[in-house]
TrEMBL record:
It is an enzyme of class 4 (lyase). InterPro entries: dTDP_Gluc_deHydtase, NAD(P)-bd_dom, NAD(P)-bd_dom_sf. CDD domains: dTDP_GD_SDR_e. The lineage of its organism: Bacteria, Pseudomonadati, Pseudomonadota, Alphaproteobacteria, Sphingomonadales. This is dTDP-glucose 4,6-dehydratase. Signal peptide: none annotated. The gene is rfbB. The keyword Cell cycle does not apply. It holds the Pfam family GDP_Man_Dehyd.
Amino acid sequence: MRILLTGGAGFIGSALVRQLIDHSEHEVLNFDKLTYAGTLTTVEKVSSSNRYRFVQGDICDGAAVRAAIEEFRPEIITHLAAESHVDRSIDGPDAFIQTNIVGTFQMLTEARRYWQTLEGAAKEAFRFHHISTDEVFGSLGDTGFFTEETPYDPRSPYSASKASSDHLVSAWGHTFGLPVLITNCSNNYGPYHFPEKLVPLMIVKALAGETLPVYGKGDQVRDWLFVEDHARALQTVFEKGQIGRTYNIGGNNEKQNVEVVNTVCSILDRLRPRADGQSYATQIGYVADRPGHDKRYAIDASRIRDELGWSPAETFDSGIEKTVGWYLANESWWRPIVEKSGADQRRGLAA
């Protein structure tokens, strides 16, 4: 199939590009604006494939989206392009409204326009797959899980913008008959993660000998999903998912943030010990919490397991070991990004 993938130079998008080129016969058009968090180095190893091509473009630019769709004539549109960092959404919500809401509206408009020109089997086969987050559901207490029926209760500008985009996609399915799919995932981690996010940030700061900033008490709980498992899940959904269905994707790995940081430290202690023999955990420091920080997320991923046969291959222990090892082996990838963008600087204290 021909897959038009938005945001394919970002963290999750690039993992899906690599998955499709390495493990399928699908053709891929990577449509990406190349913002601060997007770099083509994430897909460099598959860029020479004759099944891969790249177009630089903005999802908010309807004409650019239309041109890419009409030239490539996709059977699947997988929409991953988004502003995604909660802290940045606190400092500057406008970019999140534009990209995540207006951009999704433009994608839906052009997808519908194209879909209406199709006939027969081509029209039947077409899918618009929107990739979203578990943060749209708000915060859980000490027990329970997010299911596909959990009411939306977003708490940050980021999650509110993603909730809005989910509702737009669902509405285009109900009102216009556009064949849509939605997936909501838990916290991703793995190779090529932009170094402002928790796991790579801790690695970068640990190696620099800096304080490892843990928000509040570090007792916030997240379900951790290895990004390559997520990419497999996305392929499974657009290949086999039921039109109009939402699928939650989780890693079955609930961890407190401070536990994640301590695990990263213990792996670094073993793979690249400090010169003074002390543990990297001695660098942990507790800092002011993020405004409105959700306490706990946890995904019930039984629907995608039972209906589509997907389950994560990586445990948290195996996935985090691979992740830390990758960052140690690929310092030439992340260090220029940190130096250029200030990705290791604290954001999100505007409130």
